[in-house]
Task: structure prediction
Amino acid sequence: MTVNLTDLIRALSERQFATERQLGELASELKALQARVEALSAPAALQSAALPAVQVRADTAAAQQAAHGAKAEVTPEVLVVIAAAVTAFLGKKVCIRSAKVLQSPYEVVNPWSQQGRVSVQASHNFRSRS
Result:
């Protein structure tokens, strides 16, 4: 089996061109992500201004928990942090009306539903690409 040198050079140059194009695309995506990170971190003044604006009362939170029968508490400090994060993300003031701790799906696993998930995931046979 003989390999033509021109074909080998052409294939190499095509791969180099494709690699350079991918590198250019990745560089532009990196610049876009850096701009997004700067935009998200820019409203730091908004975050500090949002903390006093959010009013959370411990007695109101306790009354809401008693009314909803929540087992785990959501402390007022956690509510303030959540409200500040949402305010920083959206760029406008938010008011949290209610919050409760949800049960983790890993705490209680129904064996029937787990077996169903296993059978569905096992039915997806992916072929390996070579």
User: Anything to note?
Assistant: The chain has five helices and no strands. The chain has two domains: 1-42, 43-102. The two ends are 22 Å apart (CA to CA).
